[in-house]
Amino acid sequence: MNWLDEGALFSQIGAFLNEDLGRGDITTQSTVMRQQSARGRFLAKEPMVVAGLEAAESVFSTLDSQQQLEAFVSDGDEVAEGKVIARTTGFADVLLGGERLALNLLQRLSGIATLTRRYVEAVEGTGAQIVDTRKTTPGLRMLEKYAVQAGGGRNHRFGLDDGVLIKDNHIALAGGVGTAVERARKAVGHLHKIEVEVSKESDLREAVRSGADILLLDNVSPEETARMVEIARGLAPNVLLESSGGITLENVRAYAEAGVNLVSIGALTHSARAMDISFKIQPA
After folding, report:
1. Are 11 and 146 within one domain?
2. For residue 187, how many other CB atoms are within 10 A of its CB?
3. Contact criterion met (CB below 8 Å) for 136 and 144
């Protein structure tokens, strides 16, 4: 996915604003004159990859349909500390009411994009691609996966209805790798590929024999990954190979150099820290 569903985005923003504003911003209502104009600007307080500008703008435009954000960078751009990312002018109560939510989204998504970019840079030249997982914040999956793309990564399946990935629990319940793959092959349409999680050679061989299209080498060391990649390629030269589990910035290149096509990393979305961004408002 390389786009944001605007309808879904505005629906989510409305729910997020309702959570924060409730019956109204009593602090602003009691201290700021109605119809007062103001201007605000988003400032990067550390180097980062920016993501979430459209989401931030949607916060303000949901509160006031005339409100727009003037961005000085695009999602996916790297910026230095001190860079003004964007600015906006409008009613002060709109800026104050949307400030925290806009910042929360911009900081969170920029954090994901920044961490993703570091992983992408770490495997540069290997041919391996960095992909995300379903380990996302409930309610923010669309935005978080968008941020991964802004950072240069790619998206794994969006949800359980988006692809077949047979994991250890499926295998245990089905009674084995071969049975699970055969059942899936009979049940799903011809357009679906079948991916199987394996962590030992015997399961890898059984998955290939059963016709798996993609093998997920889970929680295997880089050295063992290289060995299993060689076996898999010998059995099925065109099989797609993915590594996952225990992968960090320090060892991701070793996994990429082991010969896998994809390296999936849950930390991109579940462990990225929020970037330091400020939003300063002044009278217009």
Report:
1. no
2. 9
3. yes
The structural domain count of the chain equals 2
The residues, any chain, with a CB within 8 Å of residue 189's CB and separated by 6 or more, are: none
> Which tokens hold the place of 227?
């060995």
The contacts of residue 265 (CB under 8 Å, 6+ apart) are: 119, 130, 131, 132, 133, 244, 247, 252
Active site residues: 100, 135, 167, 197, 218
Tokens of 93: 């109560």
Residues 90 and 227 in one domain: no
1 inside domain = no
| Low-confidence stretches of the chain (pLDDT beneath 70) | 1-3
What would the two tokens of residue 180 be? Answer: 């699970």
pLDDT in tens, 77-136: 999 999 999 999 999 999 999 999 999 999 999 999 999 999 999 999 999 999 999 999
Using one digit for the tens of pLDDT, what is the confidence trace for 142-159? Answer: 999 999 999 999 999 999
CA distances from 3 to 89, 137, 139, 249, 265 (A): 27, 18, 17, 27, 21
Helix and strand counts by DSSP (H, E) for the chain: 11, 12
273 CB burial (10 A radius; 0-12, 13-18, 19+): exposed
The residues that bridge with 42 in the sheet, in sequence order, are: 86, 279
Supply the range of the domain harboring residue 229: 123-270
Helix axes 92-122, 53-63, angle to 10 degrees: 160
Q: What is the CATH number of the domain that holds 82?
A: 3.90.1170.20
